[in-house]
Amino acid sequence: MKKLILFMTLLVSVSVAIEQPQSDLAFRLVLEKLEEKAVPREFIEKAFSNSLVTTHKEIPERFAKPWEKKTWPQYQKLFVKESRISAGAKFYKENEALFTQVKNRYKVDPFIICSIAGIESNYGSHHKGFTVFNSLYTQIHTMPKRAKWASRELAAYLEYCYKDHVDPHSIEGSYAGAFGFGQFIPSSFVNFSVDFDEDGVRRPYDWPDVLGSIANYLVRNGYKQGSDDYSKSGSIYKSVRAYNHSDNYVMAVLELAEKIKKRATVGK
Fold first, then answer.
1. Are residues 154 and 73 in the same domain?
2. Dihedral sign (CA 116, 118, 122, 124)
3. Which one, of 125, 93, 61, lies nearest residue 260 by Cα?
4. Model confidence over 50-83: pLDDT tens digits?
5. Could you tell me if 133 and 47 are in contact, meaning their C-beta atoms sit under 8 angstroms apart?
6. pLDDT tens digits for range 3-44
7. Which domain holds residue 103?
8. Are the C-beta atoms of residues 99 and 114 closer than 8 Å to each other?
9. Are residues 122 and 152 in the same domain?
10. pTM metric for this prediction
Protein backbone atom coordinates (compact mmCIF):
# COMPACT_ATOMS: atom_id res chain seq x y z
CA MET A 1 0.00 0.00 0.00
CA LYS A 2 2.82 2.40 0.89
CA LYS A 3 4.45 1.74 -2.49
CA LEU A 4 1.15 2.42 -4.25
CA ILE A 5 0.68 5.70 -2.38
CA LEU A 6 4.26 6.75 -3.21
CA PHE A 7 3.71 5.86 -6.86
CA MET A 8 0.47 7.87 -7.02
CA THR A 9 2.22 10.81 -5.31
CA LEU A 10 4.94 10.76 -7.93
CA LEU A 11 2.36 10.69 -10.71
CA VAL A 12 0.60 13.69 -9.22
CA SER A 13 3.91 15.53 -8.85
CA VAL A 14 4.81 14.91 -12.47
CA SER A 15 1.33 15.97 -13.57
CA VAL A 16 1.58 19.21 -11.60
CA ALA A 17 5.02 19.93 -13.05
CA ILE A 18 3.71 19.39 -16.56
CA GLU A 19 0.55 21.42 -16.03
CA GLN A 20 2.34 24.25 -14.20
CA PRO A 21 5.62 24.96 -16.00
CA GLN A 22 5.84 28.32 -14.21
CA SER A 23 7.41 26.43 -11.30
CA ASP A 24 10.25 25.39 -13.61
CA LEU A 25 13.47 27.42 -13.36
CA ALA A 26 14.16 27.02 -17.07
CA PHE A 27 10.66 28.23 -17.94
CA ARG A 28 11.03 31.34 -15.77
CA LEU A 29 14.43 32.23 -17.24
CA VAL A 30 13.25 31.75 -20.81
CA LEU A 31 9.98 33.60 -20.28
CA GLU A 32 11.92 36.56 -18.89
CA LYS A 33 14.04 36.70 -22.05
CA LEU A 34 11.04 36.42 -24.35
CA GLU A 35 8.90 39.08 -22.67
CA GLU A 36 9.68 41.64 -25.37
CA LYS A 37 9.46 39.16 -28.24
CA ALA A 38 6.31 38.38 -30.17
CA VAL A 39 6.16 34.82 -28.84
CA PRO A 40 2.86 34.03 -27.07
CA ARG A 41 3.13 32.77 -23.51
CA GLU A 42 0.78 29.93 -24.50
CA PHE A 43 3.35 28.66 -27.03
CA ILE A 44 6.12 28.75 -24.40
CA GLU A 45 3.99 27.00 -21.77
CA LYS A 46 3.02 24.30 -24.24
CA ALA A 47 6.69 23.66 -25.07
CA PHE A 48 7.61 23.28 -21.39
CA SER A 49 4.52 21.18 -20.60
CA ASN A 50 5.33 18.55 -23.21
CA SER A 51 5.86 15.04 -21.82
CA LEU A 52 9.10 14.81 -23.84
CA VAL A 53 10.83 17.42 -21.67
CA THR A 54 13.62 15.77 -19.70
CA THR A 55 17.24 16.12 -18.62
CA HIS A 56 20.11 13.90 -19.77
CA LYS A 57 22.91 13.00 -17.39
CA GLU A 58 25.19 12.32 -20.37
CA ILE A 59 25.24 15.99 -21.37
CA PRO A 60 27.28 17.41 -18.44
CA GLU A 61 29.52 14.34 -18.78
CA ARG A 62 30.15 15.23 -22.43
CA PHE A 63 30.93 18.83 -21.52
CA ALA A 64 33.53 17.56 -19.06
CA LYS A 65 35.42 15.86 -21.90
CA PRO A 66 35.17 18.13 -24.96
CA TRP A 67 37.05 17.19 -28.12
CA GLU A 68 38.61 20.65 -28.23
CA LYS A 69 40.54 19.87 -25.05
CA LYS A 70 42.37 16.99 -26.71
CA THR A 71 45.96 17.45 -27.86
CA TRP A 72 46.40 18.56 -31.46
CA PRO A 73 47.60 15.11 -32.62
CA GLN A 74 44.51 13.51 -31.04
CA TYR A 75 42.17 16.11 -32.50
CA GLN A 76 43.84 15.96 -35.91
CA LYS A 77 43.47 12.18 -35.98
CA LEU A 78 39.73 12.53 -35.34
CA PHE A 79 38.94 15.10 -38.02
CA VAL A 80 41.70 15.17 -40.63
CA LYS A 81 41.58 11.56 -41.68
CA GLU A 82 41.29 9.74 -44.98
CA SER A 83 37.58 8.96 -44.68
CA ARG A 84 36.70 12.62 -44.12
CA ILE A 85 39.04 13.82 -46.87
CA SER A 86 37.66 11.42 -49.47
CA ALA A 87 34.06 12.11 -48.39
CA GLY A 88 34.78 15.84 -48.59
CA ALA A 89 36.21 15.63 -52.10
CA LYS A 90 33.17 13.59 -53.20
CA PHE A 91 30.76 16.02 -51.52
CA TYR A 92 32.47 19.00 -53.16
CA LYS A 93 32.38 17.46 -56.64
CA GLU A 94 28.71 16.51 -56.29
CA ASN A 95 27.84 20.08 -55.22
CA GLU A 96 30.43 22.06 -57.16
CA ALA A 97 27.85 24.26 -58.89
CA LEU A 98 26.35 25.21 -55.52
CA PHE A 99 29.78 25.87 -53.99
CA THR A 100 30.57 28.13 -56.95
CA GLN A 101 27.34 30.07 -56.43
CA VAL A 102 28.13 30.55 -52.74
CA LYS A 103 31.69 31.58 -53.55
CA ASN A 104 30.51 34.13 -56.12
CA ARG A 105 28.07 35.71 -53.66
CA TYR A 106 30.23 35.77 -50.53
CA LYS A 107 33.81 35.64 -51.91
CA VAL A 108 34.69 32.93 -49.37
CA ASP A 109 36.99 29.98 -50.07
CA PRO A 110 34.54 27.15 -50.90
CA PHE A 111 36.90 24.55 -49.48
CA ILE A 112 36.81 26.26 -46.09
CA ILE A 113 33.00 26.01 -46.21
CA CYS A 114 33.21 22.36 -47.27
CA SER A 115 35.67 21.61 -44.48
CA ILE A 116 33.45 23.19 -41.83
CA ALA A 117 30.50 21.11 -43.08
CA GLY A 118 32.72 18.05 -42.84
CA ILE A 119 33.86 18.68 -39.30
CA GLU A 120 30.49 19.86 -37.99
CA SER A 121 28.27 17.09 -39.37
CA ASN A 122 30.46 14.84 -41.54
CA TYR A 123 28.68 16.28 -44.59
CA GLY A 124 25.25 15.71 -43.09
CA SER A 125 25.66 12.16 -41.81
CA HIS A 126 26.22 13.00 -38.14
CA HIS A 127 24.28 15.92 -36.71
CA LYS A 128 22.01 14.78 -33.90
CA GLY A 129 21.83 13.01 -30.58
CA PHE A 130 19.56 15.00 -28.27
CA THR A 131 16.64 17.31 -28.97
CA VAL A 132 17.79 20.93 -28.97
CA PHE A 133 15.17 21.71 -26.34
CA ASN A 134 16.33 19.02 -23.92
CA SER A 135 20.01 19.75 -24.47
CA LEU A 136 19.57 23.38 -23.42
CA TYR A 137 17.01 22.47 -20.74
CA THR A 138 19.53 20.03 -19.23
CA GLN A 139 22.27 22.66 -19.15
CA ILE A 140 20.01 25.09 -17.31
CA HIS A 141 19.12 22.55 -14.64
CA THR A 142 22.40 20.68 -14.19
CA MET A 143 25.15 23.17 -15.10
CA PRO A 144 24.74 26.41 -13.11
CA LYS A 145 27.65 28.13 -14.86
CA ARG A 146 25.95 27.61 -18.23
CA ALA A 147 22.38 28.34 -17.11
CA LYS A 148 22.38 31.98 -18.24
CA TRP A 149 23.83 31.15 -21.64
CA ALA A 150 21.59 28.11 -22.13
CA SER A 151 18.43 30.02 -21.19
CA ARG A 152 19.32 32.71 -23.71
CA GLU A 153 19.84 30.06 -26.40
CA LEU A 154 16.63 28.25 -25.49
CA ALA A 155 14.75 31.54 -25.79
CA ALA A 156 16.30 32.12 -29.23
CA TYR A 157 15.39 28.58 -30.22
CA LEU A 158 11.75 28.97 -29.18
CA GLU A 159 11.55 32.29 -31.01
CA TYR A 160 12.80 30.56 -34.17
CA CYS A 161 10.37 27.66 -33.71
CA TYR A 162 7.41 29.98 -33.25
CA LYS A 163 8.21 32.18 -36.25
CA ASP A 164 8.95 29.27 -38.58
CA HIS A 165 6.13 27.01 -37.29
CA VAL A 166 8.50 24.31 -36.02
CA ASP A 167 7.65 21.86 -33.24
CA PRO A 168 10.19 22.72 -30.48
CA HIS A 169 10.65 19.02 -29.73
CA SER A 170 11.17 17.91 -33.33
CA ILE A 171 14.76 19.02 -33.95
CA GLU A 172 17.74 17.04 -32.72
CA GLY A 173 21.24 18.40 -32.40
CA SER A 174 24.45 18.12 -30.43
CA TYR A 175 24.85 17.78 -26.67
CA ALA A 176 25.64 21.52 -26.61
CA GLY A 177 22.40 22.50 -28.38
CA ALA A 178 23.74 23.16 -31.89
CA PHE A 179 21.66 21.87 -34.79
CA GLY A 180 21.48 21.44 -38.54
CA PHE A 181 24.21 20.39 -40.94
CA GLY A 182 26.13 23.53 -40.03
CA GLN A 183 25.65 22.96 -36.29
CA PHE A 184 24.62 26.50 -35.43
CA ILE A 185 23.59 27.30 -31.89
CA PRO A 186 20.09 28.86 -31.93
CA SER A 187 21.17 32.51 -31.63
CA SER A 188 23.68 32.06 -34.45
CA PHE A 189 21.02 30.44 -36.62
CA VAL A 190 18.66 33.34 -35.94
CA ASN A 191 21.35 35.95 -36.63
CA PHE A 192 23.43 34.45 -39.42
CA SER A 193 21.47 31.82 -41.35
CA VAL A 194 20.30 32.80 -44.84
CA ASP A 195 17.66 31.70 -47.31
CA PHE A 196 20.22 31.11 -50.05
CA ASP A 197 17.85 29.34 -52.44
CA GLU A 198 15.24 32.05 -51.85
CA ASP A 199 12.32 29.71 -51.19
CA GLY A 200 11.14 31.85 -48.28
CA VAL A 201 12.45 29.66 -45.44
CA ARG A 202 15.88 29.28 -43.83
CA ARG A 203 16.37 25.54 -43.66
CA PRO A 204 19.05 24.02 -41.38
CA TYR A 205 19.03 20.73 -43.32
CA ASP A 206 19.05 21.96 -46.94
CA TRP A 207 22.53 22.39 -48.38
CA PRO A 208 21.95 25.67 -50.27
CA ASP A 209 20.87 27.39 -47.05
CA VAL A 210 23.49 25.57 -44.95
CA LEU A 211 26.49 26.42 -47.14
CA GLY A 212 25.25 29.96 -47.70
CA SER A 213 24.76 30.39 -43.95
CA ILE A 214 28.28 29.16 -43.16
CA ALA A 215 29.70 31.63 -45.67
CA ASN A 216 27.55 34.46 -44.32
CA TYR A 217 28.64 33.65 -40.75
CA LEU A 218 32.31 33.85 -41.71
CA VAL A 219 31.90 37.17 -43.53
CA ARG A 220 29.82 38.64 -40.70
CA ASN A 221 32.54 37.57 -38.26
CA GLY A 222 35.45 39.21 -40.00
CA TYR A 223 36.36 37.16 -43.07
CA LYS A 224 37.76 39.62 -45.61
CA GLN A 225 36.06 38.68 -48.84
CA GLY A 226 38.48 37.36 -51.43
CA SER A 227 41.28 36.96 -48.88
CA ASP A 228 43.99 34.35 -49.33
CA ASP A 229 45.66 34.99 -45.98
CA TYR A 230 45.37 31.79 -43.96
CA SER A 231 47.85 32.83 -41.27
CA LYS A 232 46.92 32.93 -37.60
CA SER A 233 46.76 36.73 -37.74
CA GLY A 234 44.60 36.76 -40.86
CA SER A 235 40.85 37.24 -41.17
CA ILE A 236 40.19 33.69 -42.35
CA TYR A 237 41.71 32.13 -39.24
CA LYS A 238 39.93 34.59 -36.96
CA SER A 239 36.51 34.13 -38.58
CA VAL A 240 36.75 30.34 -38.39
CA ARG A 241 37.76 30.65 -34.75
CA ALA A 242 34.57 32.65 -34.17
CA TYR A 243 32.68 29.58 -35.39
CA ASN A 244 34.35 27.48 -32.70
CA HIS A 245 36.64 29.14 -30.16
CA SER A 246 39.38 26.54 -30.44
CA ASP A 247 42.74 26.69 -32.19
CA ASN A 248 42.56 22.92 -32.69
CA TYR A 249 39.28 23.43 -34.55
CA VAL A 250 40.70 26.12 -36.82
CA MET A 251 43.82 24.13 -37.61
CA ALA A 252 41.68 21.11 -38.47
CA VAL A 253 39.40 23.18 -40.72
CA LEU A 254 42.36 24.69 -42.60
CA GLU A 255 44.23 21.42 -43.02
CA LEU A 256 41.13 19.48 -44.06
CA ALA A 257 40.21 22.23 -46.56
CA GLU A 258 43.67 22.06 -48.12
CA LYS A 259 43.53 18.27 -48.47
CA ILE A 260 40.00 18.30 -49.89
CA LYS A 261 41.01 20.94 -52.44
CA LYS A 262 44.01 18.93 -53.53
CA ARG A 263 41.90 15.76 -53.89
CA ALA A 264 38.91 17.42 -55.56
CA THR A 265 40.90 19.42 -58.11
CA VAL A 266 43.23 16.68 -59.37
CA GLY A 267 43.54 17.00 -63.13
CA LYS A 268 42.06 20.51 -63.22
1. no
2. positive
3. 93
4. 999 999 999 999 988 877 678 999 999 999 999 9
5. yes
6. 444 433 333 333 334 445 767 899 999 999 998 888 999 999
7. 63-127+180-264
8. yes
9. no
10. 0.88
